Amino acid sequence: MKVLVAGGAGYIGSHCVRQLQAAGHEPVVVDNLVYGHRAAVAPRVPFHDIDFGDAAALERVFADHRFAVVMHFGAYCYVGESVTDPIKYYRNNVAAPLTLLETMLKHGVGKFVFSSTCATYGIPARLPITEDLPQAPINPYGQTKLDVENLLKALAHSHGLSFAAFRYFNAAGAAEDGSIGEDHAPETHLIPLAIGAAQGLRPALQIFGTDYPTPDGTCLRDYVHVDDLSRAHIAAFAKLDKPGTRLFYNLGTGTPTSVKEAVAAVEKVTGLEVPVTYAPRRAGDPPALYADATKAKTELGWQPKFMSIEPIVETAWRWHKACPKGFGDRK
Ligand code: UFG
């Protein structure tokens, strides 16, 4: 199938493009390269350097290609920045997808796959998190994702849009062949920061909060390999044939891992010490987030290949060791 991948030069999108190719699909990428990397897009994949909130530019892409599905990975994802600059987040994470959805529907494309987040649950009412828990985001980032989920429900009703929204837990790791990996600028994510600190390329890792009500006092998260995320997305295509289909899935391994455990995994895998300092809690961090992904397993036959932190870190380490400057295009 020909698949439009919005945000296909970003971390998760670029990995998904390669998985799409491996599964025999034809991805076409649109990305404005604000955070994405041209070098992350797989060779021979058609690439359009446009903002997918730009209706005229998007029109030209839809006029050139006949897409079966649209996938959207192009959101901004810095929780802290979403608190200080909500307009930037609503513009890119809500207004731009609105344009994308409007354009695709106008061109008769009725299937959509959306990157949502566990941040839509806020502080979860129960753990592990199932899809039916109340969604009450505690920051604008999570709220923008929930707003799009709600828009998708409305479009399923009004236009017969079929969609799958995936609520990711903590995407991590890199392509197994070492070809691409995680390169955010600024980098705020635990694993690349811990690896960079171990390599002496970044400052000592600050561990944010040691007084959480968790076994070792640091936050618990559910790290899920970026290629496992992609495989779930592709598995959902087969479920979108009936107009008006609405699918919501958590994607995580269900294994809670503390910040200290993640740091220990980086030390074990790299054989290097991670220098750490202890800092106060980071605003907006829920103490524990981990998934019950039974629904994705039962309905999509999804089974993550990477079930624990160490093999995930191994893939990340392969990439960071080979490419210490990432894609080499950081401004
Ligand atoms: N952490 C540190 N030090 C750091 C960076 C992170 O201690 O320098 C801790 C955080 O406090 C958190 C854990 O490591 O407990 C993971 O933090 P990340 O920043 O790697 O990931 P988050 O859990 O904050 O964020 C992820 C996604 C977001 C999404 C969020 C949902 O990256 O896009 O999950 O909660 F919104």
Explain what you see.
The strands form 4 sheets. The chain has a 7-stranded parallel sheet, with helices on both faces. It has a two-stranded parallel ribbon with strand order 7-10. Strands 8-13 form a two-stranded parallel sheet. The two termini are 35 Å apart. It is of the alpha/beta class. It is globular. It has 2 domains: 199 residues, Rossmann fold; 90 residues, UDP-galactose 4-epimerase, domain 1 (Alpha-Beta Complex), CATH 3.90.25. The longest helix is centred in the N-terminal third of the chain and has 21 residues. The protein is built from 10 helices and 13 strands. The site of uridine-5'-diphosphate-4-deoxy-4-fluoro-alpha-D-galactose (UFG) has 21 residues, from helix 6 and strand 8.
User: What characterizes the major β-sheet?
Assistant: 7 strands, parallel
Number of helices: 10
Classified in CATH, the superfamily of the largest domain is NAD(P)-binding Rossmann-like Domain
For the record, the CATH architecture of the largest domain stands as 3-Layer(aba) Sandwich
Q: What is the straight-line distance between the termini?
A: 35 Å
- Sequence of strands across the biggest β-sheet: 3-2-1-4-5-6-11
- Give the CATH topology of the largest domain: Rossmann fold
The set of bound ligands, ions and cofactors reads: uridine-5'-diphosphate-4-deoxy-4-fluoro-alpha-D-galactose
Shape: globular
Q: In terms of per-residue confidence, which ranges show pLDDT below 50 for 5 or more consecutive residues? A: none
Which structural class should the secondary elements be placed in? alpha/beta
Reading off the top of the CATH hierarchy, the class of the largest domain is best stated as Alpha Beta
Our Rg estimate from Cα atoms comes to: 19 Å
Q: Work out the count of structural domains.
A: 2
